[in-house]
Design goal:
Length: 270
């Protein structure tokens, strides 16, 4: 769970420096029990990244050198789910010969602090609702994060948001991610504190999860803990630049472990 203010390892088995010549940027390549095609490249930073504009200072090398390495892969955009109404509150995908639709639904709720909108998300097939889940309070954080179809499965990601108003009338948002596959909530099945950042990487399911206070990844249904205390996500406003950036075969993100910040790229780098 993370809080956004609207005021604007499996353990690591071996960690070693990547040796290169000239102006090449040193990195740390984490050796994990991952499928052979997946790489995790971690760059220690001197401090937290700056937001406007987004900049980070590596312990060795430069931001430009690091970003140049997989620049071509980062430019390969993921295919978008279909948005189909003016409010952009719905998505659709094709699963086999069937069209699945995910829609946000809003209900007014009256409290002592005013009237608020509660959100839920439904997935339907041929006009029949096959799954429904509450998504908390309406907020700048979009609850419907994505709908996907792959192999014979469908997946849904939801950001559940709780709006908190302090005694000083300051608004903050608590949010956490949930991932659903074929109608089963992975948070409940796998004991996740949170699951977020779903995408199809090289055609296989990938997402982040938090368990026992540490963040790891799942790729092709294989879980690996990376030991991060946090990976910024669902951030809004200027902090949104810290959210993971997904591409067809990779994801780039910032993580914090032991008080230290890292820039990380995970992908199937061919």
């Amino acid at each position: 769970m993370q809080r956004v203010y609207l005021r604007e390892f499996l353990s690591i088995a071996l960690l070693f420096p990547f040796l290169c010549l000239g102006s090449c940027s040193p990195k740390q390549t984490i050796q994990l029990n991952l499928p052979s095609e997946l790489s995790v490249e971690e760059y220690p930073l001197k401090n937290a990244p700056d937001l406007e504009p987004l900049t980070f200072l590596p312990m060795q090398g430069t931001q430009e050198e690091i970003l140049a390495k997989h620049q071509q892969e980062r430019g390969k955009s993921l295919p978008d789910s279909s948005f189909f109404d003016d409010a952009q509150s719905g998505m659709s995908v094709q699963l086999r010969n069937e069209k699945l639709v995910a829609l946000e639904s809003f209900t007014d709720t009256v409290t002592s602090q005013g009237t608020f909108q509660k959100v839920s998300v439904q997935v339907s097939r041929a006009g029949e609702i096959i799954f429904s889940i509450p998504a908390g309070d309406s907020s700048p954080i979009k609850p419907l994060r994505g709908l996907w179809a792959y192999s014979n499965h469908w997946a849904l990601e939801i950001a559940q948001v709780t709006q908190i108003i302090s005694s000083q009338n300051e608004i903050s948002l608590d949010s956490f991610g949930q991932i659903v596959v074929d109608g089963e909530i992975l948070n409940e099945r796998n004991g996740y504190e949170e699951a977020f950042g779903f995408q199809l990487m090289n055609g296989k399911p990938f997402y982040f999860f938090k368990q026992d206070g540490q963040i790891g990844i799942s790729y092709d249904n294989q879980e690996v803990s990376l030991g991060y205390a946090q990976v910024p996500h669902y951030e809004c406003c200027s902090a949104g630049v810290l959210n993971p950036k997904s591409a067809n075969n990779m994801v780039a993100f910032f993580g914090q472990r032991g008080g230290n910040w890292y820039y990380v790229e995970i992908g199937v780098f061919k």
